[in-house]
Specification:
Layout: H1 5-8, H2 10-33, H3 39-65
Helix pairs in contact: 2-3
Amino acid sequence: MVAGYRTLGRWKYVWYVTWVVLLQQAFILVLEVFSFFNGLDMLYTYLSSSALTVLLLLVLERVREK
């Protein structure tokens, strides 16, 4: 089974995408801590990048569905 909008349903897919993106962004954040550390700036970057990525994935999945 492939995780997709049709196979999981709307809300399960949104939660799946959100958690996967947050985990991926957290991994990148951990790597960036070693080279650059400004806590508040990194938090803003983490949250905005995660939100943008989730939004783009949901839009792309919606377009692919049609």
